[in-house]
Amino acid sequence: MMDADIVCVAEVYGVLEGEWCRSQLEANSIPVMLSSEAAGSVYRVTMGALGRVQVFVPARLAEQAREILAAKGDEHEPPSSMPDPS
User: Fold this and answer.
1) Into how many domains does the chain fold?
2) Strand ranges (DSSP E) for the chain?
3) Is 47 part of a structural domain of the chain?
4) Environment class of residue 11 by beta-carbon count within 10 Å: exposed (0-12), middle (13-18) or buried (19+)?
5) Is residue 79 within 8 Å of residue 25, measured between CB atoms?
6) How far apart are CA 42 and CA 65, in angstroms?
7) pLDDT in tens, 12-61
8) What is the mean pLDDT of residues 2-6?
C-alpha cells in the first residue's frame, strides 16, 4: 500500500475474520493492510487483545471500505431467531 495516509476501518477478532475483510475489500479494488499480534496468529487466539486484527485502507477509500464491510456483514448475519426444529 503506497498511500501515506491510511486509516483503520474495522477491528475484528481472529485471522479468518481479518482475511474475510481483506477478500471483500480487494474484490472491490481497495488495497488492504492487516495488523495483528503475532502471538494471536501463532496460538490461534480469537478473543481479546491477542486476537484483534485491524483492517487498514487508504484514507481516501475509507468510507467506501466501511460501506462494503457493513453491507457484506449484513448478508452473513445469523437469523435473530432460530426456527423451531420440530
Assistant:
1) 1
2) 6-13, 33-36, 52-58
3) yes
4) middle
5) no
6) 28
7) 988 888 999 999 999 999 999 999 865 545 555 545 556 788 999 999 99
8) 72
Q: Is residue 64 within 8 Å of 28, Cβ to Cβ?
A: yes
Query: DSSP secondary-structure letter at 32?
Result: -
Confidence of residue 80 (pLDDT cuts 50, 70, 90): very low
User: Does residue 64 belong to any structural domain of this protein?
Assistant: yes
What are the residues facing 8 on neighbouring strands?
56
Predicted structure pTM score? 0.69
Is 59 inside a domain boundary?
yes
Is residue 13 within 8 Å of 53, Cβ to Cβ?
yes
| Separation of alpha carbons 32 and 41, rounded Å | 18
Show the domain range for 33: 10-73
CATH number of 61's domain: 3.30.70
Identity of the residue numbered 38: A
SS3 call for 27: coil
Is 23 within the bounds of a domain? yes
